[in-house]
Amino acid sequence: MIRKLLAPLLLLSTFIFTGIATYAQGDLMIMPKRLVFDGTQRSQEINLANTGSDTAVYAISFVNYKMTEKGNFEQVEEPEDGQRFATNFLRYFPRRVSLAPNEAQTIRVQLTRTGNLEQGEYRSHMYFRAVEEQTALGAEEAEESEGISINIKTVFGISIPIIVREGESTTKIDLTEISLNTEGENPKLSLAINRSGNMSVYGNLTATHISPDGTEIEVGVVKGVSVYTPNKKRIFSFELRNADEVDLSSGVLKVSYSEEKGNNLSTTEIKL
I want to staple 30 with a disulfide (CB 3.0 to 4.6 A). Which of 23, 116, 232, 248 is the partner? Predict the structure, then answer.
């Protein structure tokens, strides 16, 4: 466990310029935003940082989710057919952290008991839940002597996937059901990402317009699009931000799905 207090400017620089993806929500910043154990590492670290102005306490645990075709997550207690949880093969510490403003701390995640792993992928999500500091007994003052007072407080939480992979990937991707809607303020591209094989995918979607004369202009990109096992299909749509630079009534629209490292997984084209 590593704890350190960072000056605000140093904290910001650390998480922006390291080149490692970060994930922030509320006042908690997490780096990286996902962990993958693929046989090359037995231990990895997650860095947390409190970017707020108050001390924050987080309880850390594992939860399991399934992904819907539209990309939403639903918590499940038992794995669906073809789904495997990673909780039995992971351990981590600490399980609770208290972070002062601009303080950072490292969570160590270790891979264990993997001798009899079957080929394929195992996934669980590490959940960071904000814990409200308890008021000392007798410290509360009742402002109302009559009636009922209800105090509703929001519980903040954020999770990141922890993935364990065993064996070679047999996963393939196919992009289908591509349609272009130009009626809104910004044109919207919709498609289906079809996954087959034994592992999930995580990558970037890119849309490129190719004019009749062969000129190519990138008109849209979305990073960090995933399709988790056991899902075979994900429906996805995104707006084309640079569409005013091209004529979407002519030419070709090329859509590609690539891994973060640049390896192209699938490309398809539609004639406009």
Answer: 23
